[in-house]
Design a protein that fits this description.
Blueprint: E1 27-31, E2 38-42, H1 43-58, E3 61-72, E4 75-85, E5 90-92, E6 95-97, H2 100-113, E7 118-125, H3 135-144, E8 151-156, E9 161-167, E10 174-176, E11 179-183, H4 188-196, H5 208-227, H6 239-348, E12 350-353, H7 360-368, H8 374-381, E13 394-397
Parallel strand pairs: 2-4, 2-11, 7-8
Antiparallel strand pairs: 1-11, 3-4, 3-7, 5-6, 8-9, 9-10, 12-13
Helix pairs in contact: 4-6
Keywords: Membrane, Transmembrane, Transmembrane helix
Region (Disordered): 199-245
Protein name: LysM domain-containing protein
Length: 398
């Protein structure tokens, strides 16, 4: 079994006299900055691990991470520049681990593609199970990856979750790293490994241009396969071919990213439309409820008015009943009062108002039927002359 640790070999010319180490300029931060150890993952490595995790019906897989560990001004930096498939891995005690054949394969691939690099950690792809740390994975890591800077990268390619786990200060327990960086730089070693160990199945062409691109890609893959049939016939690709292949891979990845973004945008558009429709419905319901509240208030006001009117009507009816109860008594009293004047009139006489053209004779004729009553009228009214009466004069008729 072979182990690869950091030696005097150089990675991309870092710490060499020609090109000193500089931090990558094009980076994307994932999570927070972990000052205990800064982890940088090259973009091809990050992309390839997700492709590798989704391949073969998204089964559980392991892989090895290669790169270099350096320290600058007391700050530990881990550069992950390559990933190697964990072929021939075996399952022990319910967990997938590296077998002897896996270690041999990793060593041969490091000699072939990643010369001068170091084994900096390993990867556990567990589709659909999240990016949690399993106790068996931690035990395996402590057994085979004992350097304090070696890491475990847990990836869930289905739910797109990933987490780095690093040793604590005592180097006896794995802890979750706060975050890491994905950087973009020229990585010919990983490009060559990706071309020779592609895990992406070409999609069916939707138009002639895509069909031509797929045919060209298949042609390149066939040529690469033929070049690997024997050690004598194998030819390493030229820098121009590597650059073209890298551009092709990036173009495919960008196209897929655009398709995913368009699908996501359509979902957002649909959700926005549904939200707008729901808002309009809520506004209509609110307006209807407000109108109904106003109608209820008007109805309550009218009911109160009817109640007041009913109360007044009930009071009036009660007064009428009281008046009706006392009406016979009042009628009897009125009759008594009426009878008394009649008796008084009988005893005192009647009053006659003299009209124009009347004489005492005509008045006597009216009340007594003849003229014999003239003298009675004169005596009752104290008249001396029977012809001396005026219009409007009141005469007592005895």
């Amino acid at each position: 079994m072979r182990y690869y640790f950091d030696g005097d070999s150089n990675l991309y010319g870092y710490h060499s006299d020609e090109k000193p180490f500089t931090f990558p300029t094009k980076v994307k931060q994932m999570g927070a900055v972990d000052h205990r150890r800064k982890i940088y993952v090259e973009d091809y490595v990050y992309t390839y691990l997700y492709q590798y995790g989704k391949s073969h019906s998204c089964t559980e897989k392991v892989a090895a991470l290669v790169g270099r560990q350096i320290e600058i001004d007391g700050e530990e930096i881990l550069m992950i520049c390559g990933a190697i498939q964990g072929k021939d891995a075996t399952e022990e005690n319910g967990t997938l681990t590296f077998s002897a054949a896996t270690w041999e394969y990793v060593g041969s691939q490091m000699d072939k593609y990643f010369q001068g690099m170091t084994l900096v950690g390993w990867v556990h792809c567990q589709p659909g199970f999240g990016a949690f740390l399993m106790s068996k994975d931690e035990a395996f890591h402590k057994l085979y990856f004992q350097e304090p800077w070696q890491v475990l990268f847990v990836v869930d390619p289905v739910d797109k979750l990933d987490t780095f786990y690093i040793y604590n200060e005592e180097a006896d327990v794995l802890q979750q790293a706060k975050g890491y960086f994905v950087y973009y730089e020229k990585n010919e070693e990983m490009q060559e490994y990706m071309l020779d160990h592609s895990v992406v199945k070409p999609k069916e062409a939707k138009n002639p241009e895509e069909k031509q691109e797929n045919e060209e890609q298949e042609k390149v893959e066939k040529e690469e396969t033929k070049s690997q049939e024997g050690p004598r016939r194998r030819r390493r690709p030229t820098p121009e071919e590597r650059i073209d292949a890298a551009q092709e891979i990036r173009r495919v990845l960008q196209r897929r990213a655009k398709e995913a973004e368009a699908a996501q945008r359509s979902k957002y558009t649909m959700l926005t439309s549904v939200s707008c429709i729901l808002c309009v419905i809520c506004l209509c319901l609110g307006y209807g409820l407000f109108s109904n509240l106003n109608r209820l208030e008007d109805l309550e006001t009218k009911m109160a008015m009817v109640q007041d009117s009913y109360t007044v009507l009930a009071e009036n009816v009660e007064d009428v009943k009281v008046q009706a109860a006392f009406a016979p008594r009042m009628t009897a009293a009125a009759e008594e009062e009426t009878e008394e004047p009649e008796e008084t009139q009988k005893t005192e006489g009647r009053i006659h108002v003299v009209e124009a053209g009347e004489t005492l004779g005509s008045i006597s004729q009216k009340y007594y039927g003849d003229g014999n009553g003239v003298e009675k009228i004169m005596n009752a009214n104290g008249l001396d002359n029977p012809n001396h009466i005026v219009c409007g004069q009141e005469l007592l008729i005895p």
